[in-house]
Amino acid sequence: MRLIPGLILVFFLIAANAANTPRTFEPRHALHDEQEVPVVYGKKDDGFPDSVTLRGLIAKMSFTGNCGFSRGAGALQIKLARPAPGYNREYIYVAAPCLLGWEGDDQYPGKEVCMTVKKMKPGDTCGADYINNTIDSKGVPFYCLSWKSAKYKEFLKQVKCKIND
């Protein structure tokens, strides 16, 4: 008989936690139809700069499946609008913590973004527990976007280009 109040309490706590956990956005094409591939990490003398300030257009993305109890990162392929010093590729690959797609996955392709990113080194997860990546960078290392805000529902606002960027 003493077990029943304990079980009721456990059930209540689980239900309360589920109600407070952020819901995740899982666009079918980004999380289910494409095969996940590992991110490529940079090395000290690999010919790529440690940091890049960029302006470009989002070409592809893969969203994370979670940003609550377990914090995930998504990935972006960005077509550079102009060459960045030391980075002579057409595309740059960026891991972004809590890239959930709350704005709707159709809001991302072709969006102009401006950001400063740092090259990912072995073991780096950009502050996330895992990185969901479906974009093949063909050996080009990924860069990490560090959030300046905890407003993970407003990714596009955070990377919006200012007039003089």
Describe this structure in words.
This protein is α/β, with parallel strands linked by helices. It has one domain (24-158). 16% of the residues lie in helices and 25% in strands. Strands 1-2-3-6-4 form a five-stranded mixed barrel. The radius of gyration is 19 Å and the shape is globular. Mean pLDDT is 78; it is low at 16-32.
Helicity level, as a percent range? 10-25%
Tally of alpha and pi helices: 3
Strands of the widest sheet, in order across it, are 1-2-3-6-4
> What is the CA-CA span between the terminal residues?
67 Å
Rg from alpha-carbon coordinates: 19 Å
Low-pLDDT runs of 5+ residues are 16-32
Order of helices and strands: HHEEEEEEH
In brief, what are we looking at here?
The chain has 165 residues and is α/β, with parallel strands linked by helices. The chain has 3 helices and 6 strands.
